[in-house]
Hints:
32% of the residues lie in helices and 24% in strands. It is of the alpha/beta class.
Amino acid sequence: MCGITKRFGQVVANDQANFSLQGGEIHAIVGENGAGKSTLMKILYGLCQPDEGEIYFRERPVRIDNPRAAIRLGIGMVQQHFTLIPALTVLENIVLAREPRRFKIFLDTAKAHRTITALAEQLHFDLHPNAKVESLPIGGQQYAEILKALYHGAEVLILDEPTAVLAPQEVAGLFDCLRGLKAEGKSVILITHKLREVMEIADSITVMRRGRSVASLPKAQTDLAELSELMIGKHLTAPPSSLQQEEGKEAGGVDQPMLRMRDVTVHAVDGRLLLDRVQLDVFGGEIVGIAGVEGNGQNKLIEVLTGLRGIDGGKVTLHGESIANRSPAAIRRRRVVHLPADRHRHGISLKDRIDENLILGRHNRPPFCRRGLLQRKAIQEFADDAVGKYEIRTGGVNLPIRTLSGGNQQKVVVARELESDPELIIAAHPTRGLDISAARFVHQQLIDARNRAKGVLLISADLEEIMHLSDRIAVMYGGRIVGVVCPSETDEAQLGALMLGSADSSSDLG
Length: 510
């Protein structure tokens, strides 16, 4: 890719960017949010058209007008937000638009099943072709996306933030899969912010900053410090400590818990147990981390605490008053805020403006609304202040939020929720898709909230994040809290054993 330039209105997403990929290599693209990584790869996959520049494939100039043209060349992409159809099975999603036929008429389900099963076994994916996609955890959906790309003949596989939703054990499995693809001569492009993973898996690394490719080098010729400096354009200071406290204040030093869950039980419509007698306390002035392999009840726990799902038994109280089976609006009025894991589904309105997204939830109250009319001046002032404070890169707050990169969209959600003076913060994967400096900024915001005696419940698939931020860590497995540990008294191996259900903890669950 030579001299690629792409503009979205006043925003220059790619500015004369260059990128080269060799056959049979794993090539990582790193950079801050809004650096142009995803846009450059969307151009390679045909989802966007460049305003300037050329693409050469196997030394021939090519024009990739759409994803179908990319697939014909052998280029596949697994995007950060999956494109599977939830109501269809894994098999139906994978073969869509390339269904095997008997007698050129009938769908050959048996052949498709054999092909997909063989491919899954080759990659060591535990995935049943007849499972409905909507029943799969996020990690399983990602595996289905990878199988779909390979089934359609991908020789070059683009993965956008592939480990953002995976537990450490799943990351190891994915990396084994990528090494296997590389051994078969396939090439992998990895878009990520996790530099430690880059140093583990990549052969080559391209660094992007403000739309330009500022360096491309073999992994053997660089290190974490140099990559961080290339990404940000300056020396990166040490990360904040999770032990930073206001002078004279201890985390969790309040006698009574802010949030208390006792014997909380939730069943699915078909009777399956989703939450099994969950016991959990969150005190003001502490961060409680929730660790667990995706699909072990974390999302159901969030839904209960945000009013999206009722409980069948037990108690949920906030400052001693029940919030069980209350509406999301009623719970928000109790100053409980939610940083959702899926920002597109639960966090933002893609068709609306950036400033409008920044006031969602408070759009019908002063100072943003008076006598039923939006107060544009107040909204503009608040939005401009939030954009500056949270370092959101935008061409203007009056632009649609869909013009922002994924990481900057996440910053909008964080800014909106934390600027509402919350009492309890439920943060689900709050730094998913964020670059190093942005993630550290969000971490510091959560630490600052904890130091102001706010309660923080942090749900994350990133064990490093959980270990770094949490005062206590509760581990979920099979819909239960199977252990609560102190970060200073445990390690990732012990947490991993609890997450897989192969260990138990006698720690107090309160």
